[in-house]
Amino acid sequence: MNDGLNVAIIGAGIGGLAAALALRARGMQVTVFEDAESPREAGAGISIPPNAATLLKRTGLRGTIEKITTTSQGLTLRTSRGELVSGPPASSTMQSYQIHRLDLLNMLLDVMREAVRFGHRCISVNEKNIGARLTFANGAICNADVVIGADGIHSIVQREIGLTSSPTSEGIVAYRGLVHSSRLSRATELRGLNMWMGDGRSFICFPVSQGRLINVVAFVPSSRDMEETWFGPGDVEALAGEYKGWDAPVPDIIAALDQTFRWGIYDRPPLPYWSKGCVTLLGDAAHPMVPHFGQGAGQAIEDGFALAVLLERARRDEIPSRLETYQNLRLERTSRVQVASRLAGRFYRSASESASERAEKLGEWMSAAAWIFPYDAEKAAAALLNSAS
Are 122 and 33 in contact (CB under 8 A)? Predict the structure, then answer.
C-alpha cells in the first residue's frame, strides 16, 4: 500500500477539485493550491456529460448533484430560420446535466474546502530524489510525493516539465451570458440544450440553477486576436447585430442580456507527453479543447478519477511509471475527443441551411462520436493496471 501518498494539486478549478475528491476517496492525502485569494465569483453554465456524471455520482454526491443541476431534456437543433433538425433523443440510461459552473465548484469546495489553500501562486516545481518541492509566490514551500498541474491553459506546471503549446485561432469568438428566466416569455420552451445553426455562426442556450437562469453561448466569426479568458467584456449590441434576421427566440434572448463576456477560441495539438517523474498534468493544462462538444469539464473529471485508480496502491518508487501509464491511457482518449470537438464546431457553423442535410450530417457525426459517452474512466484505468501486473 502507499500508506497515504502526499499529493499536491495546482489549481482549484473543476478538474483539480474533482481529482482531489477522487484521490482522497482512495486514501491519499491531498492539498490543493490556488492562485486566487478566494473562490471565484464569476462563471457561466456548463454541461456535465454522462461519462463524467457517472463518476461524480459514485462519490456519494448523487443527491447533491441532482439538487443543483438541471437534468438534460435532450438536444433541440434548429437552423437559423427556425427549421427543426432531427436529432438524437435524450437517453434514460446515460444522463447528462446542465449546471452553473459556480454551483459545481461550490459543491466540490464544500467537500474539499479544508484541503484548499487559496492565495498560493506556484512559481516553480523542482523534482527531488523522491517527490518534488513546490515554491509559491508568497514564500510558502511544499514537499509532495506527487504533483498534479490542474492550472489551465496557461499552466505553470506544464512549463516546469519542459512543455510549451502553440495555440491556433479558430477565427471564432464566443460570447457568454446569463439571462433570468423571468425576463423571457419563451423560457418554458427552452428546456434542455437548444442550438441554432447557421453559416459561420451558432447559438446555444440551456437552463441552469434549477431553471432560474438561461445560459447563453454564441459563436461568431472574428479576424481579431482575442484573449483566452471567459471574462473579457463584450458588447450586447454588437452581438445582436451578428444574429439579425435569425429565428425570433435568438434575438429575443440577446435583447434580454444585461451584459456579455467574450473570449477567443483557440485550438491546440496534443502535447507529446504529460508526465515527468512524479509530476503530471490534467484538464486544460494537458489537453485544452475547443468547447463545441461540451467535454472540457468532462475530460478533466475523467483524468482525476483515472489517476486516482492508478495511484491508489502505488509505492513511491512506482509513481513515475504509474504516471506514465496514466499519460498513455488519457492522451489517446483526450486526443480523439479534441478531434471530435473540432469537427462539431465545423458542423454547427457549416454553410448548409437545409434541415434535412443537417440532420443527415448530424446522424453521421453523432454515430462517429458515440464512443465518448459510455466510457468509464475508472474501469479503463483498473483494466490497464491489471493487464500490466
Answer: yes
* d(C-alpha 343, C-alpha 292), whole Å: 8
DSSP codes joined into one string, 169-180: EEEEEEEEEEEE
Helix H or strand E encompassing 266: strand 261-267
How far from each other are the two terminal CA atoms of the chain, in whole angstroms?
Answer: 15
With cell 464569476, the residue in question is 42
C-alpha cell at 44: 457561466
Confidence of residue 1 (pLDDT cuts 50, 70, 90): very low
Nearest to 190 by CA among 168, 213, 169: 213
H or E element that contains 355 = helix 355-368
Sorted by sequence, the CB contacts under 8 Å of residue 121 that are 6+ apart come out as: 35, 136, 137, 138
Closest CA to 19 of 295, 384, 306, 334: 306
Contact 155, 170 (CB under 8 A): no
> Considering only CA atoms, which of 384, 298, 365, 357 is closest in space to residue 14?
298
Give the β-pairing of 146-149 and 6-10.
Answer: parallel
How far is Cα of residue 24 from the mean position of the Cα atoms in its chain? 21
How far apart CA 248 and CA 182 sit, in angstroms, is 18
pLDDT tens for 89-131 read: 555 567 788 888 888 999 999 999 999 999 999 999 999 888 9
DSSP classification of residue 1? -
Q: Are 263 and 229 in contact (CB under 8 A)?
A: yes
Query: Interhelix angle for 319-348 vs 355-368, to 10°?
Result: 170
The predicted structure's pLDDT at residue 359: 73
Report CA-CA distances (Å) from 114 to 8, 31, 51, 109.
14, 9, 28, 9
For the full predicted model, state whether its pTM sits above 0.85: yes
| DSSP code for 61 | I
Q: Which residues, including other chains, have CB under 8 Å from residue 243's CB and lie 6 or more apart?
A: 80, 201, 203, 218, 250, 251, 254
Contact 180, 213 (CB under 8 A): yes
C-beta separation of 194 from 76 below 8 A: yes
